[in-house]
Design a protein that fits this description.
14% strand, alpha+beta, 208 residues
Length: 208
């Protein structure tokens, strides 16, 4: 393809921007400039498409092969708000997941129980990462969260020991009671997170 002097369309949250291609050594440098521009505005890139394709699906290409770049971004607080909604729904599903794990172990299906347990542990890491991000973005200092962290740490220490010992009965008990209670405490705390985000963003959130 013939080289072009200008990349005609770079949609930045539906605002078109004309970019002079010759100012960039490569598409990677153009991406860095876009990221810098978005970060300067205090926002986070949530979607980046090149000629209608998600960037993740693109392999090796050059500026000469591109005509349109679409960039969508959000403020960290608005993104957090959406994530908290997901967290609220995810914890409800996690409760059912605990029931499945306990049922599997108590009925001798260790393989299914372990597979679901591993998935659950990754899910717990995500849950607590969201809580940590919420603390940072919402300038939140709450003793109830500290209590949740302490109880969760205690449960995870015991759960790790039970997993190492292949004590499936103990794993079931820990999942069914202490861990369930920790998640219930988080669920009860979620309205506090919503209230704080509403104050900072001025946008009301509704949850079930």
């Amino acid at each position: 393809a013939a080289a072009i002097d200008y990349l005609e369309n770079i949609g930045m949250d539906n605002v078109e921007k004309i970019v002079k291609v010759s100012e960039y050594e490569s598409f990677q440098y153009l991406l860095w400039d876009i990221e810098k521009s978005v970060e300067t505005k205090g926002r986070i890139i949530t979607s980046l498409k090149v000629d209608g394709l998600n960037l993740d699906s693109l392999s090796d290409f050059s500026l000469e092969e591109i005509s349109v770049v679409e960039v969508m971004s959000q403020s960290p607080l608005m993104l957090l708000k959406e994530t908290i909604v997901e967290l609220n729904d995810y914890i409800d599903k996690f409760f059912y997941g605990i029931e499945d794990i306990v049922y599997s172990f108590r009925n001798g299906d260790k393989i299914k129980g372990i597979d679901n347990l591993v998935e659950g542990i990754y899910g717990l890491e995500w849950i607590f990462q969201i809580l940590k991000n919420s603390e940072r973005l919402l300038y939140l200092r709450d003793l109830r969260l500290l209590d949740i962290y302490e109880k969760a740490d205690s449960v995870m220490i015991e759960l790790t020991e039970a997993i190492d010992n292949k004590d499936y009965h103990r794993i079931s008990v820990l999942m069914e009671f202490p861990l369930y209670n920790v998640l219930s405490n988080i669920k009860e705390f979620i309205p506090i997170l919503f209230e704080k985000t509403e104050v900072l963003t001025g946008v009301e959130v509704f949850i079930n």
